[in-house]
RNA sequence: GGCCCGGUAGUUCAAUGGAUAGAAUAGGAGUUUCCUAAACUCUAGAUACAAGUUCGAUUCUUGUCCGGGCUACCA
């Protein structure tokens, strides 16, 4: 149990003893870290109890404080400052805490339990390569999955590939028209980029045909429907749905190219999936659910035969579920897929990492399932995140302002190389080690940059200046970690040392503020990890890791480890930095960020 | 029009209803005979506006203003 939780329990216990008549409502006990300008380590806020217990802050503070000193072994003293009870934690608490946990590479994790959750993320279309906006989704989904795992949940990471539809047909048509049989091999291109290029070519040709028709006097909206290339694409989609062998073959070939490209990108991004769903398998699902809904009277049929649900009670509109011709729409297949997921894995919960422009869609999806009485409805959670925008606004493929994901990775790694060389830190590395280091630094910076912000907030990305390797970055944390490793190497102390070595440590001298603060921050890690899981928020891990690295740097500057004042101090500080490194590694690893031992 | 989300230093981000609103970066001033200066120390700078609830509001409620998203028989 974390110290803050222990203090909360102790306070609860004290209040029960001191005021047996009064019931203290849950949640009224607030325990905070003491502000640096006051003496003490943790603070209990007294205000909420004053009215309830009809007492004064000084009186209550003294009662509580004395009770703690008498009944627990946690504190050495307390101060009362205007309604706040500031508690000073016994130094030996920190040393024994470190001795108990420094050797545990899983510090902060929770035991496994049988809560099954699926995290669906990435879910790309197969008509174009991944871009910068997708990266936020991918890192977020991966990190949330890992964070939930560390909290003991059974996680299935899933990718639902949108592999069919008119957009894919557009690429196929353009390829047929213009490619002359070109393949990724013949052009020496990544397959996803090749297919994306023909998607762009389609749009160019389409635009040209429309403006041609307009100049011949056709109305623009009519021209948009009548352009031959668009009609070809629609015809191709019909053939696909009719299982035309030739169309299917081309579709399989081109999708195959895209998957090869995606797999390279995913591997480089360091993310993985336990389950792949393909829309070509799932797009017909959902119709049976609709039929059942009709039988139950939850849905209704209009005169033309189309099927609807009325959500006006919930402040929403009526929503179409089946067209008049009986074909399904987007949300119909989502209903089916939602149920499929729960059946496949007996899930308790199903997370969808999807951009916030689909908030309404996801709300409707959940609501419909609820109205249909599907048990999976309650487990559905939309992990909504804000768009990544450029200073000039949204990225638009039509305007060519999309930042390609592969390019972005290359640029970051190049930046890492440049900065490392500039700082003259390449000595003592082989070329192979250097390349690995640049990748670690570049990818780390990219991931941290996208994860450090609260997911639900939209973020602005300025390709020219946004990404820095100084300040609130992964590099800062990586550097602190490398420094620790360097010290440990020189001290002949392995990263995961023998736990018997430090067992005899007893403090005879008071801890310096920088030492104590570092231990205090480390001790909070389990509660940070828990909160990050509850809120599905990896930015908590980033903020925390940065704070920890920052405190380490201050400590490092002020106190020497190798030349500590005496052996006792040296032992304590070694424990401190071993655990600092271990927690940093753990926290960043959950975000997919690696920390080098040397940089 | 309706619904949803956001508005905090010049900029990018923090702050379970708690003390004098924290960082980073850009700006100013310093630190290297000593474990990695990709670091450290000091300095200056912000809650859009107005009411309300509260001992206490960046946080909760309402209204106004600004920005974004959604509101398809597209996926």
**Largest sheet at a glance?**
5 strands, parallel
Cross-sheet strand order for the largest sheet: 7-6-5-11-12
Beta-strand portion reads 5-15%
Q: Would you tell me the structural class of the helices and strands?
A: alpha/beta
Shape: globular
The overall average pLDDT, rounded, is: 92
Number of strands: 15
What's the number of helices? 22
Low-confidence stretches: none
Helix content: 40-55%
Q: Any descriptors?
A:
5-stranded parallel sheet; alpha/beta; 599 residues; 22 helices; RNA-binding; 4-stranded antiparallel sheet
Structure description:
The strands form four sheets. This protein has a five-stranded parallel sheet with strand order 7-6-5-11-12, sandwiched between helices. Helix content is 53%, strand content 11%. The relative contact order is 0.10. It has 22 helices and 15 strands. The protein is globular, with a radius of gyration of 30 Å. With 599 residues, it is α/β, with parallel strands linked by helices. The model has no long low-confidence stretch (mean pLDDT 92). The protein binds one RNA strand of 75 nucleotides through α2, α15, α16, β15 and α18.
């Amino acid at each position: 149990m974390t110290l803050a939780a222990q203090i909360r329990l102790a306070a609860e216990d004290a209040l029960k003893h001191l005021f047996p008549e009064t019931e203290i409502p849950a949640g009224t006990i607030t325990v905070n870290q003491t502000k640096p300008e006051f003496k003490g380590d943790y603070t209990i806020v007294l205000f909420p109890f004053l009215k309830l217990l009809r007492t004064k802050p000084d009186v209550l503070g003294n009662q509580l404080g004395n009770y703690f000193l008498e009944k627990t072994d946690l504190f050495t003293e307390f101060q009362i400052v205007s309604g706040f009870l500031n508690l000073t934690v016994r130094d030996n608490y920190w040393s024994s805490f470190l001795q108990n946990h420094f050797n545990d590479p899983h510090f902060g994790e929770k035991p496994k339990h049988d809560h099954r959750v699926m995290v669906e993320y990435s879910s790309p279309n197969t008509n174009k390569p991944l871009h910068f906006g997708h990266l936020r989704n991918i890192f977020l989904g991966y990190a949330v999955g890992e964070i939930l795992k560390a909290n003991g949940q059974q996680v299935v990471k899933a990718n639902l590939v949108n592999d069919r539809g008119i957009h894919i047909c557009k690429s196929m048509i353009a390829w047929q028209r213009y490619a002359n049989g070109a393949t990724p091999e013949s052009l020496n291109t990544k397959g996803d980029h090749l297919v994306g290029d023909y998607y762009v070519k389609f749009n160019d040709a389409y635009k040209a045909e429309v403006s041609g028709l307009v100049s011949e006097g056709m109305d623009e909206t009519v021209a948009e429907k009548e352009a031959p290339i668009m009609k070809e694409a629609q015809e191709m989609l019909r053939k696909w749905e009719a299982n035309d062998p030739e169309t299917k073959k081309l579709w399989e070939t081109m999708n195959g190219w895209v998957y090869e490209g995606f797999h390279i990108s995913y591997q480089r991004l360091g993310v993985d999936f336990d389950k792949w769903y393909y829309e070509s398998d799932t797009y017909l699902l959902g119709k049976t659910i609709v039929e059942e809904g009709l039988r139950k009277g939850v849905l209704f049929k209009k005169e033309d035969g189309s099927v609807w649900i009325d959500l006006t009670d919930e402040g929403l509109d009526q929503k179409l579920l089946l067209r008049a011709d009986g074909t399904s729409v987007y949300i119909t297949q989502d209903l089916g897929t939602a149920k499929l997921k729960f059946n496949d894995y007996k899930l308790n919960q199903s997370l969808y990492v999807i951009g916030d422009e689909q908030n309404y869609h996801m709300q409707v999806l959940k609501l419909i399932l609820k109205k249909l009485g599907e048990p999976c409805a309650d487990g559905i959670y939309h992990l909504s995140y804000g768009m990544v925008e450029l200073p000039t606004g949204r990225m638009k493929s039509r305007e060519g302002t999309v930042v390609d994901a592969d390019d972005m990775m290359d640029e970051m790694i190049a930046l890492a190389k440049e900065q490392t060389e500039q700082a003259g830190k390449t000595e003592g590395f082989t070329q192979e080690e250097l390349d690995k280091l640049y990748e670690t630094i570049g990818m780390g910076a990219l991931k941290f940059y996208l994860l450090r912000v609260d997911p639900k907030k939209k973020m602005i990305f300025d390709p020219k200046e946004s990404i820095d390797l100084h300040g609130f970055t992964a590099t800062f944390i990586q550097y602190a970690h490398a420094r620790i490793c360097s010290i440990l190497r020189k001290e002949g102390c392995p990263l995961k040392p023998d736990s018997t070595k430090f067992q005899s440590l007893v403090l005879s001298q008071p801890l310096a503020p920088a030492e104590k603060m570092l231990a205090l921050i480390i001790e909070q890690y389990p509660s940070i990890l828990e909160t990050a899981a509850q809120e599905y928020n990896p930015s908590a891990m980033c903020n925390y890791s940065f704070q920890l690295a920052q405190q380490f740097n201050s400590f490092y500057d002020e106190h020497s480890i190798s030349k500590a004042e005496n052996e006792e101090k040296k032992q304590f500080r070694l424990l401190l930095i071993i655990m600092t490194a271990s927690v940093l590694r753990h926290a960043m690893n959950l975000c997919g960020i690696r920390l080098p031992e040397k940089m």
